[in-house]
Write a structure and sequence with these properties.
By secondary structure, this protein is of the alpha+beta class. The protein is built from three helices and four strands; from the N terminus they run βββαβαα.
């Protein structure tokens, strides 16, 4: 799968997107605890366009990269089966 980084989509810029799988990955720092409603609105915008949004906390990436990669891998795998 090919992911692109920092891609403008609609009124937003996503951290990572795989267009063929329609998966968006967002990496959230501590500031996102204060903007939950904004993030929900943003996620809904992408879901309405058929994208699955995966959100990970920054510390999760640093402390459990293998777990994060497994979630991404499984999401891509499941998306492949749905579109077949």
């Amino acid at each position: 799968m090919k992911f692109r980084r920092q891609v403008p989509m609609g009124p937003y810029i996503v951290d990572f997107v795989c267009f063929e799988q329609k998966i968006i990955i967002e990496l959230d720092g501590g500031q996102h605890q204060e903007q939950i409603e904004k993030d929900q609105k943003r996620d809904q915008f992408f879901q309405n366009q058929g994208y699955k949004v995966l959100r990970f906390w920054d510390n999760e990436v640093f402390q459990n990269i293998n777990g994060v990669l497994e979630v991404i891998r499984m999401s891509c795998k499941n998306k492949s089966h749905v579109s077949s």
